[in-house]
Amino acid sequence: MNQNGFRHILSLSGGKDSAALAIYLRDRIPDMEYVFHDTGKELPETYEYLGRLEAILGKEIHKSTVENGDFIGFDQLLKVYGGMLPSSHRRWCTRMMKLRPFERFIGSGKCYNYVGLRADEDRTGYISSKPNIIPIYPFKEDGLVRGDIVNILEESGLGMPPYTEWGRTRSGCFFCFYQQKIEWVRLKETYPDLFEQAKAYEKPGKKATTTFYWCGNEPLAELEKPERMEQIKREHELVKARKKANSANKSLMNILGGVDDYESNEGCLICQL
Ligand code: SF4
């Protein structure tokens, strides 16, 4: 806490930008508090990545959970919402599993909330709008872009989040509806058990008039058919080739880095930065 009574808080998502921001600010803001809002539905490697980050920061990362009164996790919340899976239009998950735990962690005191939004992106997303929480965007203020973030991570020894190795582009819940179809294919190939769990959630809601799907109107039971997975892969390669051809100004690191540069402008700042 500084002399004005403000706490310094950095929310980690398990993603590259918030991890890089923590490293970037480590020596500048010694009383920084780090927090990770665990939905209980994260990818397994997220915990390992945060453990390594903790060692680099030399400080504990506080883990907040969804638990609050009757709600002890996603499955209970889903019942409260009548079996209605969250989506970009019904994004109760971010509010209940990320924002509320964050606001509980802050309480009513004043704080600076450091957000890893980069200078090369124009994302919108959920961040707290409580008046006692003042957002600060160091990467935007200092003009840092994606290549800088990759450099910070490489130089620190932390590297990119491990899930990028199998082609996932974002942190957050394994069933996140912001995944592209190709990411669902990769989830199926990398973590068939998690894919099965995600698929099991696709059933009619309380009134049994609607079935909710994670991936638009396409049930995961359809998406996982071998011919459909092959089609998604082919289409993805075509889009990738087109993007590569159009990206004359893209940095060499992005092109050679093996990570698809398909960050959405949507998503949650708190889930995915
Ligand atoms: S990662 Fe996706 S599914 Fe999980 S809370 Fe965030 S928006 Fe919801």
TrEMBL record:
Q: Which residues cross the membrane?
A: none
Q: Which GO terms describe its molecular function?
A: catalytic activity
Query: From which organism does this entry originate?
Result: Mucilaginibacter corticis
Q: Which residues form the Phosphoadenosine phosphosulphate reductase domain?
A: 8-123
Recorded hits in InterPro entries, A to Z, give: PAPS_reduct_dom, Rossmann-like_a/b/a_fold, Sulfate_adenylyltrnsfr_sub2
> Which Pfam family is one of this chain's hits?
PAPS_reduct
The record's section on Gene3D superfamilies has: HUPs
| Record protein name field | Phosphoadenosine phosphosulfate reductase family protein
